[in-house]
Design goal:
Layout lengths: L10 H22 L1 H12 L3 H17 L1 H11 L1 H21 L3 H15 L2 H12 L5 H30 L1 H22 L15 H13 L1 H32 L4 H28 L4 H21 L6 H12 L1 H15 L5 H30 L9 H8 L2 H26 L3 H6 L16
Helix pairs in contact: 1-5, 1-6, 1-7, 1-8, 1-9, 2-3, 3-6, 3-16, 4-5, 4-16, 5-6, 5-7, 5-9, 7-8, 7-16, 8-9, 8-12, 8-15, 11-12, 11-13, 11-15, 11-16, 11-18, 12-14, 12-15, 13-14, 13-15, 13-18, 15-16, 16-17
Length: 446
Amino acid sequence: MTEQIHDIGRRRAWVIWLVALSVYVLAVFHRSSLGVAGLLAADRFDIDATMLSFFTVLQLVVYAGMQVPVGVLLDRFGSRAMLLSGLVLMTGAQLAFAFVESFPAAVAARAVVGAGDAMIFVSVIRLVASWFLVRQAPLVTQLTGQVGQVGAILAAAPLSWALVTLGWTRAFALASSLGVVLMVAVVLVVKNSPYARGGPTTIKLRQLARQVQTVWGNPGTKLGMWTHFTSQFSMTVFAMLWGFPFLVSAQGLSESTASTLLMLMTVWVIISGLVLSWLVSHRPYYRSWIVLGVVFMMIVPWTAVLLRDTPSPLWLLVVLVCLTATGGPASMVGFDLARSFVPVESSGRANGLVNIGGFSASLLTMALVGVVLDLREPGGMGAYDLDDYRAAMSVQYVFWALGIVQVLRYRRRGIAHLHRVHPGAVESMRRGEPFVHPGFSDREGV
């Protein structure tokens, strides 16, 4: 049996998590930095709005596409190595972005930022699974998502100041230097596990393929992925791309009011995340139903807003923004679900697969909203009106419907799987007791 050499869920665990969380904050900051520098980027690289949006889409494509290989590497080398690798990639790419002057070179730099970013979140979640007690994990997972997003938003103000004061090159070069500081912190503080373990083990390709198949074949992994898929995309699409123009062009709000509502989303993420973490930790058997309840609460105000042929009152838009923001914390439940079905040593692959869900749905929704808008009104951003946005934002229902069906499907399969492979696990969760996966066995099946 592996020897435990450090306490779980105590001071050392929190220090390690804080360092890893700082890396995640920096990753989200790098990911979203063009939100502050968008107009300057358009001028610097002489590009239009479509080409500018390509930066964001490309980063998300790279991020989602890297999740499976990152998960495999994470299970082999551990969180510490992956955090360092991600920091090296992001730091180098952001430094290059500070100096490049051509659009193709800038695109390449942002793609590498996306590759480094892809290594961070799942590495932090694996540390949470390794270093915290089962009852602590849902809260720490929610805090990871919340603080990461809030920290990035707060960090945007200094970058905006730096761009005005220092200029493009020095501002982004300074931002990249933060990665060097965190590399030192990761080397000095972060440890992969509270247990004594040897170095990375060599895994043959056939064995690796079989292990990935086992993780993906587990209905709990798919339940986590579809949970992430169904709950996350609406918030991501709204916050990263279409929310601001929807509020201004379709709903007639001023830019300052629309910005305030987007900031309100951040506040609501914190409040709803704390409530959801408590519910999930105390009602593990009902986690899927809790998420579906959140999704239905998102659908109701969207339906009320999109059915109106006139702009919605401000109070309804506030409700819409808040309930849409709840999808962010709800998507974190997908990782907690996967943890119940997959042991820690395979959590990297499982979390990578779960993480694909929401980002894939977000990419597809972003693209389809743009396609519908262009089909209805070829005149460009300035020509879109309320009816155009009502039609375009309705594509969300396709993804909600698909996700709800799949969550219900894999919830049923997941419960049957636990009854078959881990007798007593379901009854334990019904009583509000967490289930700790003992490790894969030959009975797991795929």
